[in-house]
From TrEMBL:
Species annotation: Haloferula luteola
Annotated CDD domains: DeoC
Keyword Lyase (UniProt): yes
Record-given protein name: Deoxyribose-phosphate aldolase
Gene Ontology cellular-component annotations: cytoplasm
Length: 308
């Protein structure tokens, strides 16, 4: 990346104290959350899940099963539905009929996910088709090549074009933090995205398709950026960590970070999501343990809603 482009941006938004970030996030796992507070946190996490399947072998039947799980995570207990079902664009039309009118949203990855390596015209056409098929939310990937080359205007212009193509659908902008390599780059990319998206849109850590995904560290950099942007502009941007969050213990640590950085106003599905496939089952296991006092085996909960 041309050093001058990044330097000018960081002079404007500030740099990241990497050591300070690591020290801060090291304290989140030490927070003690027990009994009623733990149950509240686990249910809150369930309500924030974007239940996701992004496989080449996805079928309409698998999507229907996932939607049933989204609507009824567990037949016993007072549990919320998940926030959304996230699928490839070709699967949107198969998912919509199963959740229409329920409050569960349909999200779709787009813009040549996960690489983003397609002509802009093709990426925008994919977004428009997913929205036309009923997607309530679009998860796009930024042009990492443009960012790393210091072509910030190109990156922002492409995001702005996707915003327009989304219409009324919510946009989640995926930074792919592992490919940005440094905390300063993650902060810079966060600000570039936030300056062109709308209030209520999201910035998101990862596609879940690289070797490194969401961590407490890269989330903290993004949460701090959201806070600083909000304090400067009053614009509320939402957050989505994705990939690598597989158990309830991790999810609670990520929520502690949100509460301590952004406050209770961000502890709701409209401002915070988990991109996950296996996380939901562990949340359900922990909630059942809280309810019955008996620890549940990993196979207690299945992918769909037909077996518990």
């Amino acid at each position: 990346m041309p050093a001058s482009s990044l330097r000018r941006l960081l002079d404007d938004i500030g740099t990241v104290d990497a050591t300070g970030i690591e020290e801060r996030v090291a304290h989140y796992p030490t927070r003690s959350i027990k009994k009623q507070a733990k149950t509240f946190g686990l249910k809150l996490a369930v309500s924030m899940v974007d239940l996701t399947t992004l496989e080449g072998k996805d079928t309409p039947g698998k999507i229907a099963s996932l939607c049933r799980k989204a609507l009824c995570p567990h037949p016993e207990g007072d549990l919320p539905r998940v926030a959304a079902v996230c699928v490839y664009p070709s699967m949107v039309r198969h998912a919509v009929p199963h959740v229409q009118g329920t409050g569960v949203r349909i999200a779709s990855v787009a813009t040549a996910f996960p690489s983003g390596q397609a002509p802009l015209k093709t990426r925008l056409a994919e977004v428009r088709q997913a929205v036309a098929d009923g997607a309530d939310e679009i998860d796009m990937v930024i042009n990492r090549g443009a960012f790393l080359a210091g072509e910030f205007a190109q990156m922002q212009d492409e995001i702005a074009a996707v915003v327009e193509a989304c219409g009324e659908s919510t946009l989640k902008v995926i930074l792919e933090t592992s490919e940005l390599e440094t905390y300063d780059n993650i902060r810079a990319a966060s600000f570039l995205a936030m300056r062109v998206i709308r209030p209520g849109d999201f910035i998101k850590t990862s596609t879940g398709k690289t070797s490194a995904n969401a961590t407490l560290g890269n989330q903290q950099v993004m949460l701090d950026a959201i806070r600083d942007h909000f304090l400067a502009t009053g614009v509320e941007i939402a957050m989505k960590p994705a990939g690598g969050i597989k158990n309830a213990k991790q999810a609670l640590q990520f929520l502690v970070a949100v509460k301590e950085t952004l406050g209770d106003a961000w502890l709701r599905p409209s401002r915070y999501r988990f991109g996950a496939s296996s996380l939901l089952n562990d949340l359900l296991r922990q909630l059942e343990t809280q309810r019955t006092g008996a620890y549940q085996a990993p196979w207690t909960f299945t992918e769909d809603s037909s077996g518990y």
